[in-house]
C-alpha cells in the first residue's frame, strides 16, 4: 500500500538544497520497509528466532518513528493527512494498541475523508482494540469510495465477530462474511492473507450455516492457497485456524503438526499449545479406552454383551430401511469386518461402554463394543447440548464411515479405527431412531489474534 505523493517543496526550508528528498516519499518508503520487516521476518531470521520477533519489530518501529522526528519543524504543504497516516500506520505495526495511532489516523481521515488507506488503518486499530462497531464503520466507509481488498477481507472478519441477537442474524452475517472474503480474493488472487480470511469464512459457514463436506473442502483449499504466500504463511493465525479445521476433519496428525507450526511462529502465544495439549489428551483417552474396552470390568462387559438383542436395531433389524423413498438393504456385520471408508449397505450394532470428553464438546465420542468384543470409537457431530448416549445403551449405525488413525506423536503411538457420524438422527439407540431434537449445530472456535 502506498500513499499518494505530493511533489510540493517543503515550506520553511532555507533553500532547495536543504532537503534533498521529499519527506513524504522518504517516510512512505520507511514505513513500507517496516511492514516488510515484520511480514517477511522469517526470510531474514530462522524460526528459532521467532521469540524475538515482537521485540525486533518494536525496535524497527522506534527507528522508523525517529525519521518522523527528523521532519519536525517542517510544515508539509498538502501532505499533512499523509504524514499523519504514515505515522499512525507505523505505530499500528505492533500487536498491542498504541492510542496515539488512533489520534493520528483520525486526523488523517478528517483532513481527507476519501483517504481509503487511512480509513482501513484506523479500522484495523479499532479491530485490534476489540471495538468491532467502530472498526466496521471504518471499513464500510472506505468501501463507499472504492471496492478494495483490505476493506473487504476486514469486513469479513468483522461480520464473523459482530454480536447478533438471533441465530438468523448470525447466519446472515456469516454468509455475508463469505461473500466479502470471496470478493477480496477476486481482486487479488495472489494475496495469501485474503485467501486465509476466505478459508476461515468457509470454516465459520461450515459450522454455522450447513455442515456440508464440500464447504470444509473449500476451506482447506483456501488455506492451501494462503500458504503459497510467504507473508500469509508467516502468520500463526493461519496455522491455528487450519489446525481447528483439520481436527474437525479428524486429520489428527496433521492438526497436531499445524498447532506446532502456530507455536513455532509465535512461541509466546499460549492458545495453540493448550489446544494441542487438549487434542493430544483426547487422542490418548480414546486409544486407552479402546485398548481397555472402556475400562469396563470383565463381568460387567459380559453382562452388557449378553444384553445385545437384534430387536434393539429398531427400523434396521429387518435388513433394510427407507431413505428418500427408496429401500436400502442392510447387512448386519461385526465391527472387525468394517472396511476403511463408507460401508454401504452395512449396519453395525454394539453396546456403549464409555464416552470420551473433549474440551470443545465437539464431537460427542463414545466407545462401542460388539458381541466379538471388538471395541471402536464413534464420533457424533451436530448433537444437541445435553444429548447423547449412556453406558449400557445399544446403538445401531447404518452405512458407517470408518477412518483409521495410525501415527506417532511425542512418544505416543495411535492405532485405532473410528466411525464418524455426521448427524445423530441416523442412529438407533435401544431400538428407537433418534429424533430431530437430538440435532444441533456445533460451535466453532477460531482465534483472532492480530488480524
From TrEMBL:
Record's keyword terms, sorted: TPR repeat
PROSITE patterns: TPR (PS50005)
Matching InterPro entries: TPR-like_helical_dom_sf (IPR011990), TPR_rpt (IPR019734), TTC5_OB (IPR032076), TTC5_OB_sf (IPR038645)
GO cellular component labels: anaphase-promoting complex
GO BP annotations, alphabetical order: anaphase-promoting complex-dependent catabolic process; cell division; positive regulation of mitotic metaphase/anaphase transition; protein ubiquitination
Gene3D superfamilies assigned to the protein according to its UniProt record, in alphabetical order: 2.40.50.550, Tetratricopeptide repeat domain (1.25.40.10)
Protein name: Tetratricopeptide repeat protein 5 OB fold domain-containing protein
Tetratricopeptide repeat protein 5 OB fold domain sequence ranges: 330-442
PANTHER family (UniProt xref): CELL DIVISION CYCLE 16,23,27, CHROMOSOME UNDETERMINED SCAFFOLD_12, WHOLE GENOME SHOTGUN SEQUENCE
Pfam families: TPR_8, TTC5_OB
TPR repeats: 116-149, 236-269
Amino acid at each position: 500500500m502506498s500513499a499518494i505523493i505530493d511533489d510540493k517543496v517543503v515550506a520553511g526550508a532555507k533553500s532547495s538544497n536543504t532537503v534533498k528528498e521529499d519527506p513524504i516519499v522518504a517516510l512512505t518508503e520507511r514505513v513500507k520497509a517496516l511492514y516488510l520487516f515484520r511480514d517477511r521476518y522469517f526470510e531474514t531470521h530462522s524460526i528459532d528466532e521467532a521469540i524475538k520477533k515482537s521485540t525486533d519489530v518494536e525496535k524497527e518501529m522506534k527507528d522508523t518513528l525517529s525519521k518522523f522526528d527528523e521532519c519536525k519543524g517542517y510544515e508539509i504543504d498538502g501532505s499533512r493527512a499523509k504524514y499523519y497516516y504514515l505515522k499512525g500506520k507505523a505505530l499500528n505495526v505492533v500487536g498491542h494498541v498504541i492510542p496515539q495511532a488512533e489520534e493520528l489516523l483520525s486526523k488523517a481521515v478528517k483532513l481527507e475523508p476519501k483517504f481509503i488507506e487511512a480509513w482501513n488503518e484506523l479500522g484495523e486499530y479499532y479491530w485490534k482494540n476489540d471495538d468491532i462497531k467502530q472498526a466496521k464503520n471504518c471499513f464500510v466507509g472506505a468501501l463507499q469510495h472504492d471496492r478494495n481488498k483490505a476493506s473487504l477481507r476486514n469486513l469479513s472478519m468483522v461480520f464473523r465477530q459482530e454480536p447478533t441477537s438471533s441465530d438468523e442474524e448470525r447466519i446472515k452475517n456469516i454468509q455475508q462474511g463469505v461473500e466479502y472474503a470471496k470478493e477480496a480474493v477476486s481482486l487479488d488472487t495472489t494475496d495469501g492473507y485474503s485467501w486465509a480470511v476466505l478459508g476461515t469464512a468457509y470454516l465459520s459457514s461450515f459450522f454455522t450455516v450447513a455442515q456440508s463436506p464440500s464447504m470444509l473442502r473449500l476451506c482447506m483449499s483456501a488455506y492451501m492457497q494462503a500458504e503459497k504466500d510467504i507473508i500469509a504463511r508467516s502468520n500463526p493465525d493461519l496455522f491455528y485456524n487450519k489446525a481447528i479445521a483439520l481436527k474437525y476433519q479428524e486429520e489428527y496428525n496433521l492438526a497436531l503438526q499445524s498447532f506446532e507450526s502456530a507455536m513455532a511462529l509465535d512461541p509466546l502465544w499460549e492458545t495453540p499449545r493448550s489446544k494441542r495439549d487438549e487434542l493430544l489428551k483426547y487422542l490418548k483417552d480414546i486409544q486407552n479406552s479402546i485398548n481397555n474396552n472402556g475400562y469396563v470390568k470383565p463381568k460387567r462387559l459380559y453382562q452388557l454383551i449378553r444384553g445385545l438383542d437384534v430387536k434393539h436395531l429398531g427400523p434396521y433389524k429387518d435388513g433394510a430401511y427407507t431413505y428418500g423413498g427408496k429401500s436400502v438393504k442392510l447387512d448386519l456385520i461385526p465391527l472387525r469386518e468394517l472396511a476403511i471408508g463408507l460401508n454401504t449397505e452395512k449396519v453395525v450394532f454394539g453396546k456403549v461402554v464409555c464416552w470420551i470428553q473433549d474440551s470443545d464438546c465437539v464431537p460427542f465420542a463414545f466407545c462401542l463394543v460388539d458381541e466379538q468384543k471388538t471395541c471402536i470409537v464413534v464420533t457424533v457431530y451436530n448433537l444437541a447440548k445435553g444429548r447423547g448416549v449412556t453406558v449400557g445403551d445399544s446403538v445401531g449405525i447404518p452405512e458407517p464411515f470408518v477412518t483409521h488413525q495410525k501415527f506417532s506423536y511425542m512418544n505416543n503411538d495411535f492405532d485405532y479405527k473410528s466411525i464418524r457420524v455426521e448427524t445423530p438422527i441416523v442412529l438407533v439407540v435401544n431400538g428407537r431412531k433418534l429424533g430431530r431434537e437430538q440435532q444441533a449445530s456445533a460451535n466453532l472456535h477460531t482465534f483472532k489474534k492480530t488480524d
